[in-house]
Amino acid sequence: KEGYEPPGVVNWNDADDNNAFHAKQCIIDFDGTLSTEVALYNNKKEYDDILTHGLTLNDEGKPYPAQIFMVGCMVPKGAKNVAVSKEFMKYMIQPKVLNEFNKGGLGRWFNPLKDITMGDPWWNADPHRKAYLEEATGLTIPYWFVYNPAYAEVMAEHNLNVALSKVLTGAMKPEAAAEYGLKQVEAIFARYPIKAA
Fold first, then answer.
1. Contact, 68 vs 110, CB < 8 A?
2. Cα(103)–Cα(106) distance, integer angstroms
3. Which of 86, 120, 91 is nearest to 103 (CA)?
4. Which of 162, 194, 187, 170 is nearest to 11 (CA)?
């Protein structure tokens, strides 16, 4: 509402934050990967003009834990060629292969094998990758869906984002929108009860 982001922000999809940053419609992109930076990798002037850094310190001067997203593999139930899929996964999770795969993506994703990544000078040779490496090897926490699959559905449904959009567009007052979004989240979590061991 105060002009720090384009008015269309309420309708952005997953790539629109990157697009708005590249179009100079905003000056900050809060992203969990280096996708914004590596899109400009071949444009050295613009690539070098971007500053990448980890999360700021909290009010007590301590680091916030970062949620570092790792891409995983899966074989769907009932898939054909399960044996071949498993062999491919065994190949891909070899430390050297996985590191080269992530380097091939210009460091957009972080290698979960920290020792391999930290031992490879390539990751520190670029200020964007270095900042990503420092964040990913610092204080981290898993994404919430690790604890309960309900959170994956919440992320897919964008319940809280929809509530925020209702506030930004003037369709609801903040209190009503928060109640609206949280009721939807509560209903989703009710379908995924977690029993204590």
1. yes
2. 5
3. 120
4. 162
Provide φ and ψ at 66, rounded to 5°. Answer: -95, 145
Q: Which amino acid is at 93?
A: I
| Tens of pLDDT, residues 52-99 | 998 989 999 998 999 887 767 788 889 999 999 999 999 998 989 989
Of 190, 192, 186, 193, nearest to 159 by C-alpha is: 186
Tokens of 101: 């795969």
Phi, psi of 90 (to 5 degrees): -60, -40
Compute the distance between CA of residue 128 and CA of residue 50 in angstroms, rounded to an integer: 8
**Cα–Cα distances in Å, from 107 out to 21, 29, 34, 42, 53?**
19, 17, 7, 14, 14
Q: How many residues belong to the chain? A: 197
Closest CA to 142 of 29, 32, 14, 28: 32
Using CA atoms, how far residue 31 sits from 68, 71, 143, 147, 164, in Å, is 10, 15, 14, 22, 19
pLDDT of 161 reads: 86
Q: Which two tokens stand for residue 145?
A: 């869906």
Backbone φ, ψ for residue 57 (5° rounding) = -80, 155
Instruction: Using only the alpha carbons of the chain, give its radius of gyration.
Output: 20
The pLDDT value recorded for residue 197 is 62
Q: pTM of whole model > 0.70?
A: yes
